[in-house]
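Retry 2 of 3 after timeout on previous attempt. Resubmitting structure tokens to design endpoint.
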């Protein structure tokens, strides 16, 4: 029994750390606030902004996104969409040439977002952009997105993360993906900012001081998860990251389970690569008073919620056969704590869309996550592209 209790203590202790972290940030997100500043009518400075848009085989969505993103209320002569065209068809390139955007054709033996972003930065190296924003090829910026970014920089911020929300919830998987996105926004962005720490980055809908981003991206070689490496480089450099809840950018959510699994495989692999590459550096920062880096490492240890639900349910079930109340009661309490943190983090408009169909999908997605973990090796050396569809 002593060996069993020891193993149980390790497993449940790690799960308790996960739930405690999520619950703390969820509560903080409810009590605190984001870093939004409304665009002031008397704002006298319009900073020039380059919006980098990596587009790898995104012929189905890029033209629609470009047209949507050109409809900003920000002065047209103060921003440019820079399309980093990787493996786009000639027809698509021809149509892009007829739009008021900059196109940077690229070709790599192995394509990655890191390479695309660095190619875009190289293309604008000698231009007078003060801010560099990043948008995915399927993203649609709200009309006031760049105005809100500019206002935040007017307040002194040099790195900001906007509020990425779903532009589609037409399928059960897409709705659950949208819910997951908003949980991340509430906990890892709004919640941690309420605790006085930096917002997590998410790969798009973010903006940086041009010089700062160039320095933070220099030397990156990751196959996936460039945003995690970028975030850590900023934090280790002593730069804080704001979260702008009202600076909205719309993102296409995955619509079927197979694509969901492929995407999560890429994300889990990126998380593992980040941990292996930055674990020591992040913790070493504590000796120099850099709490942010260490906190980021702890954040990366948090398991996906779908896996947490599945593991806690399994541990509770197995504990019921041991004979001691402790073995099932404590993990069951953790499961309730997890559900409480999720209830606090999800906006009401999304909860209202949840039906029995979505609840029945959760066990299937747990299995997809398990498969994603087993398949992470192929994501270490290959860029696993998430296909998008016309909306």
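Retry 2 succeeded. Sequence:
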């Amino acid at each position: 029994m002593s060996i069993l209790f020891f193993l149980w203590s390790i497993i449940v202790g790690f799960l308790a750390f996960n739930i405690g972290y999520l619950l703390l940030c969820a509560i903080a997100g409810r009590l605190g606030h984001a870093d939004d500043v409304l665009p002031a009518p008397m704002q006298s400075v319009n900073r020039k902004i380059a919006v980098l848009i990596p587009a790898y085989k995104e012929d189905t969505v890029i033209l629609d996104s470009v047209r949507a993103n050109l409809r900003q209320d920000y002065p047209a002569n103060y921003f440019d969409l820079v399309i980093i065209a990787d493996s786009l068809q000639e027809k698509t390139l021809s149509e892009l040439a007829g739009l008021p955007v900059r196109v940077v054709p690229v070709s790599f033996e192995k394509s990655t977002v890191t390479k695309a972003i660095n190619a875009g930065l190289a293309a604008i190296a000698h231009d007078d952009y003060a801010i560099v924003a990043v948008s995915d090829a399927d993203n649609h910026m709200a009309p006031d997105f760049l105005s809100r970014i500019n206002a935040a920089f007017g307040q002194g911020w040099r790195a900001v993360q906007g509020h990425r929300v779903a532009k589609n919830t037409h399928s059960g998987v897409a709705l659950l993906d949208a819910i997951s996105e908003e949980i991340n926004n509430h906990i890892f962005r709004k919640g941690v900012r309420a605790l006085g720490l930096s917002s997590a980055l998410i790969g798009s809908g973010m903006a940086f001081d041009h010089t700062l981003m160039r320095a933070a991206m220099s030397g990156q070689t990751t196959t996936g998860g460039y945003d995690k490496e970028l975030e850590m480089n900023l934090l280790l450099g002593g730069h804080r990251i704001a979260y702008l809840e009202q600076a909205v950018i719309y993102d296409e959510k995955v619509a079927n389970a197979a694509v969901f699994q492929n995407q999560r495989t890429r994300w889990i692999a990126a998380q593992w690569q980040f941990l292996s590459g930055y674990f020591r550096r992040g913790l070493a920062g504590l000796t120099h008073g850099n709490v942010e880096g260490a906190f980021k490492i702890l954040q990366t240890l948090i398991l996906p919620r779908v896996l947490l639900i599945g593991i806690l349910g399994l541990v509770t079930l197995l504990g019921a056969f041991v004979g001691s109340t402790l073995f099932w009661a404590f993990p069951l309490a953790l499961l309730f704590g997890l559900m409480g943190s999720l209830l606090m983090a999800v906006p009401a408009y999304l909860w209202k869309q949840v039906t029995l169909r979505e609840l029945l999908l959760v066990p299937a997605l747990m299995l997809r996550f398990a498969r994603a973990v087993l398949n992470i090796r192929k994501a270490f050396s290959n860029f696993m592209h998430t296909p998008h569809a016309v909306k």
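Attempt log closed. The first strand starts at residue 49 and ends at 56.
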